[in-house]
Amino acid sequence: VQKKKPQFVSRICCSGEVSMEPLGAALGEELYGAVSSCRLLLVGAGGIGCELLKNLVLSGFVHIDVIDLDTIDVSNLNRQFLFQRRHVGKPKAEVARDSALSFNPKAKITSHHASVFNPEYSTNFFKQFTIVLNALDNKAARSHVNRMCLAADVPLVESGTAGYLGQVTVIKKGQTECYDCLPKPTAKTFPGCTIRNTPSEPIHCIVWAKHLFNQLFGEVDADNEVAPDISDPEAASGEAVATTGAASDSTAASTAESCGTREWAERVDYNPAKIFTKLFHDDVEYLLSMENLWKKRRPPTPLDFHALPSEPETESASSSSSDLKDQRMWTLQYAADMLGRTLDALKVERQTRDDKQLVWDKDDTDSLDFVTAVANLRAHIFGIKRKSRFEVKAMAGNIIPAIATTNAVIAGLVVMEAFKILQGRLSECKTIYLSKRPNVRKKLLVPCSLVEPNPKCYVCSSKPEVTVTLNTDVLTVKSLEDRVRCSPLYRFISFVMRLVAACKIGVVPAAAAAAGCL
């Protein structure tokens, strides 16, 4: 009996194009028809997004929309293979579309270089699609897409990777748990007094540097102040603080404290020498006056802007190789010079913004250089090991190294789950985990059944309620507003504003809001 030759999924034509004809035999006529006619929305064109878009066009999907706000950075090129060095600085969504079309020119891909939070991407926009595929790397955007898909009643395939770990799951309104059904782990935080008064680890200095960036150029948060914290329970007695306070009335520290860090910086026109002296000399001298803090700790050493300790030039960041440059330790002089340069650059950039505010971005050169310089100067003062620019970027951006192979595996699983949805086999869809090491069954991929919706989820339950218990004798409406702003409820901004407005005008008394269900 003559064996039948196997069918190939795709073949290269003489013209160089990829032929999709054999896909019908591979997928079956019904699934192939659904794949060819459905419309997909891919949110994110980064590590997973590049792999996923390539898989989609080679699997026969034709009608695809891609949304991504980012532009291509040189650091993306080691794993986001749809991009090349000549694409650096260009929108990811547009370049990903052009690169994917080279695999299948017949695909109809629409790119959106924009934020998925923009008003035009409303519920009606999401209703156009058969399936939405998430390839995002932050919780806020994932949660937003999750809610939009629930409102539009469109299936969502959620995916994510972290190093060698990965996960894929399917979300369908009323049938599976949604992205917000279970609380997500929050980023580690540190006590304010540790950050402001007694740092002991490199991350403390990096967090302080990011707070300083926001105080000078970004959205000011009173909880992220950088001046010495005189309310620290470990601080010196009131008498000692009062004495030093009187002595420091003439210093920049007291001036900045009385008018705010940014206002003071604007008064001195972001002068590098004055800002350096305030942060790394005057404020440190003030900390030294809190004697109780240093009874069991190494006291900090103030720096003089005009007389910095000399260090070997071999540690300078003057290498011609950008990779080596990022991994070298900066000397104090180099860090001070970099602080001055970035202060000037960020001041100019801030003036070009309509809202006069910058957002710290690990991929922005000036923002990263500023934090690296400030963190290393502060680390030296407190006797903490300094970090290279490369290390600061990883720590400040909470970066887990991206693995191209992990992205490829997860992208393939996303397409497989999409096939099941198109075939009406939602009950067969799985949550699939990719592990770093094989389990007891020697499997790296672990499929699990989808979980039913959490009845207490305030996003997807049929009767979303959150009960808030307050002491109405002492809590003001302003305090209620501030607390809600800092909670997960703040994602429902329209509701929060209606509640607070109702409390303010007396339509809903604060007592009623406290006693009832929000």
Description of the structure:
With 518 residues, the chain is of the alpha/beta class. Helix content is 42%, strand content 9%. It has 20 helices and ten strands. The chain has helices spanning 23-27, 29-37, 47-58, 92-101, 123-126, 139-152, 192-196, 202-216, 238-247, 252-259, 261-267, 272-288, 322-327, 332-352, 365-381, 389-396, 404-422, 477-485, 493-505, 510-515; strands at residues 11-12, 18-19, 39-43, 63-67, 108-112, 131-134, 156-162, 165-171, 430-434, 445-449. Strands 5-4-3-6-7-8-9-10 form an eight-stranded mixed beta sheet, with helices on both faces. It has a two-stranded antiparallel ribbon with strand order 1-2. Helix 4 (92-101) links the parallel strand 4 (63-67) and strand 5 (108-112). Helix 8 (202-216) crosses helix 15, helix 14 (332-352) crosses helix 15 and helix 15 packs across helix 16. The longest helix has 21 residues, at 332-352. The N and C termini lie far apart (73 Å).
In short:
This protein is α/β, with parallel strands linked by helices. It has helices at residues 23-27, 29-37, 47-58, 92-101, 123-126, 139-152, 192-196, 202-216, 238-247, 252-259, 261-267, 272-288, 322-327, 332-352, 365-381, 389-396, 404-422, 477-485, 493-505, 510-515, and strands at 11-12, 18-19, 39-43, 63-67, 108-112, 131-134, 156-162, 165-171, 430-434, 445-449. It contains 20 helices and ten strands.
| Radius of gyration over C-alpha positions, nearest whole angstrom | 28 Å
The helix/strand series, from N terminus to C terminus, equals EEHHEHEHEHEHEEHHHHHHHHHHHEEHHH
Shape: globular
SS class = alpha/beta
Placed side by side, the strands forming the largest sheet appear as 5-4-3-6-7-8-9-10
Task: Let me know the largest β-sheet.
Answer: 8 strands, mixed
Total of helices: 20
Percent strand equals 5-15%
Helix content: 40-55%
The whole-number mean of residue pLDDT values reads 83
Low-confidence stretches: 3-9, 236-256, 314-322, 493-499, 505-518
Distance between the termini: 73 Å
Number of strands: 10
